[in-house]
Amino acid sequence: DLGKVNAYLKQADLKGKVVLGPWAASACWGTHAVTKPVWNGYFNYEDPLGRFQPVLILSETDEEESDEAWRSQGIDLNAAADSVRVFPLWRYEVGMYWINGK
What we know:
Structural class: alpha/beta
Helix content: 10-25%
Low-confidence stretches: none
Strand order of the largest sheet: 2-1-3-5-4
Number of helices: 4
Order of helices and strands: HEHEHEHEE
Strand content: 15-25%
């Protein structure tokens, strides 16, 4: 599953661009994206959209892996994204929330 996600992301131009979320590093392997994990109350969780201006956020659709880092700050990933694609990763549904930085 992770290989399929990685192959999909390698088609995008992510070199030097910021991708956020706990799944970012493993999903973006080899894309040359700048990846930063986000965990509620612990790592990169304070104003992540403003601080990092990501082009992509990878998060389980229920945000369980980040302890609802986005939802707890009033960020609706579906509303923030220009487009969303969901991939199965093992037993998880991981959303790719593409942000164009309006």
